Amino acid sequence: MICSMKKSLKLRAVVSPTPAIIAAAYDENGKADACTLAFYTPSSHKPPCLTIAINSTAKRKTLKSILGSGAFTVGYPSIEQAAEADWIGMASGYDHDKIAEVGWTTAKAEKVNAPVISELKLTVECKVVNTVDIGSHTQITGEVVNIQADESILDENGKYSLEKLNPIIYDEEHWRYLSVGSKTADAFKAGLVYKKN
Fold first, then answer.
1. Burial class (CB in 10 A: 0-12, 13-18, 19+), 20
2. Fewest Cβ atoms nearer than 10 Å: which of 28, 71, 118, 154?
């Protein structure tokens, strides 16, 4: 095996590749607010949890709404919704009704007090179970209490299909959105070629 030379890069949080997700919550007046995030990761199988991080040093209404309500949803925009997702991540909820401006609508989540953006084909409902401030961001861990998926993205086994969802992948290094590629191997099977009896 030939190893190439390595070069140190600019110091930053490495978030590439990552899905661009949209976190949504109700503010103190019951109005739906949302922001697009790249700082997102699954964080537990049992109970199922995910963690998002929102810049607490900037003007972020959605952060205040999540902390105030104790609940949020995470929606996964498809590549054809890149412009809408981008605007929701750029504008401030203090100055804009972002969801209405992009022509989207909301409905109340089934299990938590948070909005579901109707136009997003996959949404995870979460109740806040932990928060921690780390540097510029507040990390929020939510326990997943419900998952809603449009039937249009389900496969023959009733599971959501990544290919049908066609989520946005965010490239932090070059500030661009990409689409998911084709299948390359089966997880937890491809590596068995290295298993010794």
1. buried
2. 28
